[in-house]
Amino acid sequence: MKQYKREQKLSESFHLHAFHGTLRPLLDDTSVILKEDQMVSIPTQRMQIINEADTMYGRRIDILVACDLETDNYEIEMCSIEFKKPNPTAATLQQQQNKKLRINRCILNGIPSSHSGH
Predict the structure, then answer these.
(1) 25 in any annotated domain
(2) CA distance 10 to 17
């Protein structure tokens, strides 16, 4: 796969904004929302409360994909997307993968079932 010459020098933020800019036109006429700028997932905050964590700050997320329910000003978080610089270490990749799995599991558990009224 061909790489952009300067890719090694580009920041995580550059990739995040490029991805966001590419997807935005595709999602304009949908109820899908891309929230960026290190959002905190509400389900991860709830999970910390359930687990009686000492800190209740939630996990920071690069892009949080949500669905806007127009009926009651309620957004349902659907998944998270994280970006890292090119060529991270194996340890960084493992840590990032574990973080993604934990966050997306919390988000999945936070999606209301069809019986909850949302």
Answers:
(1) yes
(2) 12
Tell me, yes or no, if the pTM score tops 0.70: no
Torsions phi, psi for 32 (to 5 deg): -85, 135
Q: pLDDT per residue over 45-98, tens digit each? A: 776 666 665 554 555 778 888 888 766 666 888 888 887 777 788 998 898 888
Our count of domains for the chain comes to 1
* Domain interval for residue 18: 7-110
Neighbouring CB atoms inside 10 A of 41's CB total: 23
Q: Is residue 116 part of a domain?
A: no
Q: Which residue has the higher pLDDT, 60 or 23?
A: 23
Reference 66, options 39, 48, 45, 46; nearest CA is 39
Residue 106's φ and ψ, nearest 5 degrees, are: -60, -40
